[in-house]
Design brief:
Mean pLDDT: 89
Distance between the termini: 37 Å
Order of helices and strands: EHEHEHEHEHHEEEHHEHEHEHEHEHEEH
Shape: globular
CATH topology of the largest domain: TIM Barrel
CATH superfamily of the largest domain: EAL domain
Largest sheet: 8 strands, mixed, barrel
CATH architecture of the largest domain: Alpha-Beta Barrel
Number of strands: 15
């Protein structure tokens, strides 16, 4: 396996080569230009599992190189390393993530040995075998309609833990489509399809019913969790939606106080008055409401003003790396401050390493949810995971 390092400065290239060679058994290949790196990729792409790339280079800069990686469908690890300011690095990071690259992080020059070690560990984790999932392809309305009817949707659950104690207090429900031919299909490939073609109510009812049923199983096993389910704004055009939830919860024997609806305004309200009617009725039934992905898209101050939310989830783009980035940290802390003044609980999405965890513990944020804690899992695995988490929790708190 090979690692490429790309920098036009000979001294920096030499130092990086020496540092990485002392940390890994992989072959470290120095490239003094982006074009030289592209030639290496053309010759031996299968063996290259990690690239460290400078941003500021003549002829082809780091951003142009990222564009070329997208064009050749490079799917291994990428680290940006540069002397540019934090804001520039942060913007470059957002670009890499938007391109769906396996972006592992950004490092400011000069690179510390510990930072390089961390990137190597992240690269090793993404190269590990993963559960099979479907290729990113488009599906038709009838495909999804049949999947809903045939029971091919499955719920996965990602734990939420209390930062002060490390105790597991809830989960977020994340739906998957188990395709008979294509394997596991993630929601970014079918939720928009459901919203655009009138299937979101049927899909949401299936997800809610399964989540409430799973909650009952956990309660029977002595596990009392708050279970969050994502709701589309299109669900709030159906005046029967609150009654459906209440009937389903009563049927399976789950208190409505165990349910949280997470709302992301990814689509504009078709009928604002109807939506407000439904949202108020949900609150009257003691169903908690959470504003998801705060700080992105349409999730905004307007929603905080207009809707009776109980919980604010800070988007991962303002969580991961906030401990070392002044701009991200300022937005994160401002979000927490607003939530506290409005009497809302706060959830930090996306902590990925110990540094993120330690920062969040000191911040006063209430809950955290992210890969550092656990990836989403089937409901049947939750009890076993909690037993393993208890041992790890002692080290973190």
């Amino acid at each position: 396996m090979k690692i490429l390092i790309i920098d036009d400065e000979p001294f920096v290239l030499k130092v990086l080569h020496r540092q990485l060679s002392s940390l890994t058994d992989a072959e470290v290949v120095p490239c003094d230009s982006a074009r030289a790196a592209l030639a290496e990729l053309a010759a031996d792409a299968a063996q290259i599992f990690l690239i460290f790339c400078d941003l500021q280079m003549p002829e082809m800069d780091g951003i142009e190189f990222v564009r070329q990686l997208v064009a050749i469908r490079y799917d291994k690890g990428l680290v940006l390393i540069s002397g540019e300011d934090n804001r520039t690095l942060q913007t470059a990071e957002r670009l890499a993530l938007a391109h769906k690259l396996q972006f592992l992080g950004a490092i400011q020059k000069p690179a510390a040995r510990e930072q390089l070690q961390q990137m190597l560990e992240r690269a090793a984790s993404i190269c590990a075998p993963a559960p099979p999932r479907a290729a990113h392809k488009k599906y038709g309305t009838e495909d999804l309609r049949q999947a809903i009817a045939a029971g091919h949707l499955e719920n996965y659950y990602q734990p939420k833990v209390e930062l002060a104690t490390g105790h597991v207090v809830g989960v977020e429900t994340l739906v998957r489509w188990r395709h008979p031919d294509d394997g596991l299909i993630f929601p970014d490939q079918f939720i928009s399809l459901a919203e655009e073609h009138g299937l979101i109510d049927d899909l949401s009812r299936v997800v809610l019913t399964a989540a409430l049923t799973q909650t009952r199983h956990w309660l029977d096993a002595g596990l009392d969790l708050k279970v969050a389910v994502n709701a589309s704004m299109d669900n709030f055009n159906d005046v029967e939606f609150p009654d459906f939830i209440a009937r389903t919860a009563e049927k399976v024997g789950v208190p409505l106080t165990n349910l949280i609806l997470e709302i992301t305004e990814s689509r504009l309200m078709k009928d604002p008055l109807s939506a407000l009617d439904i949202i108020i009725r949900l609150r009257l039934k003691r169903i908690k409401l959470s504003i998801d992905d705060f700080g992105t898209g349409h999730s905004s101050l307007t929603q905080l003003h207009d809707l009776p939310f109980d919980e604010l989830k800070v988007d991962r783009s303002f969580v991961h790396g906030a401990w070392q980035n002044d701009a991200i940290r300022a937005i994160f802390e401002a979000s927490l401050g607003m939530a506290r003044q409005l009497g809302m609980k706060t959830v930090a999405e996306g902590p990925e390493d110990r540094e993120d965890w330690d920062f969040l513990k000191k911040s006063g944020c209430d809950l955290a949810q992210g890969y550092f804690i656990a990836k989403p899992m089937p409901g049947s695995e939750m009890l076993g995971w909690i037993s393993a988490w208890e041992a790890r929790r002692q080290e973190l708190v």
